[in-house]
Amino acid sequence: MKGMILQRLISGLGLLLLLAGPAAAQSESAQPAPPAALIRLHDALGLTPDQEPAWRTYAAAITPSAAAQARHQQAAELMPRLPTPRRIALIEATMAADQADFRLQGLAVVHFYDLLSPAQQRIFDNQTAAPASESRPLRAPPG
Q1: Hey, how many other C-beta atoms are within 10 angstroms of the C-beta on 102?
Q2: Would you say 38 and 59 are in contact if contact means Cβ atoms under 8 Å apart?
Q3: What confidence tens digit (pLDDT) does each residue in 8-65 have?
Q4: Following CA atoms 59, 65, 69, 70 in sequence, which dihedral angle do they give, to the nearest 10 degrees?
Q5: Residue 139 belongs to a domain
Q6: Cα(12)–Cα(15) distance, rounded to whole angstroms?
Q7: 67 with 24: CB under 8 angstroms?
Q8: 52-62 vs 36-45: helix crossing angle, rounded to 10
Q9: How many domains are contained in the chain?
Q10: pTM for the structure as a whole
């Protein structure tokens, strides 16, 4: 059973990578403008010239990649045509790729945050916190 699940996960990941490759390569060249919230954060932080390279690395890391967007779009298009076991494998592969992306984003955030002064860290925390209306518990409440 465990081997079968692993085989499906690997085949789903392979399918996902095969499909995402060409689409990601085509869309990597088109870089969208940074979101307004990112511009506001940059301006509010009042970065020093020494902090600017770390900012650029941070901003690039947290911006959704064309590869990730293509991966999600292609998975959504494939989903209705796949039998259930392949859908599960595709979902698992997509989640694994998203988790890997999240780890890299997290590392970039921590690295950048460590270069900020305490005052800048407070600004960063305030501007990047989700509004109370958008915050959700990690788990659904029982009942």
Answers
A1: 10
A2: yes
A3: 444 444 444 434 444 444 444 455 667 888 999 999 999 999 999 999 999 999 888 8
A4: 170
A5: no
A6: 5
A7: yes
A8: 160
A9: 1
A10: 0.65
Enumerate residues 6+ apart whose C-beta is below 8 A from 41. 123, 124, 127, 128
| Cα 84 from Cα 98, distance rounded (Å) | 21
111, part of any domain: yes
Amino acid at 82: L
- pLDDT tens across 61-112, in order? 988 888 899 999 999 999 999 999 999 999 999 999 999 999 999 999 999 9
The three-state secondary structure class of 60 is helix
Range of the domain at 113: 2-23+35-128
- In DSSP notation, 68-113 reads HHHHHHHHHHHGGGS-HHHHHHHHHHHHHHHHHHHHHHHHHHHHHH
Which residues, at least 6 apart from 128, have a Cβ–Cβ distance to it below 8 Å? 41
Cα Rg of the chain (Å, integer): 19
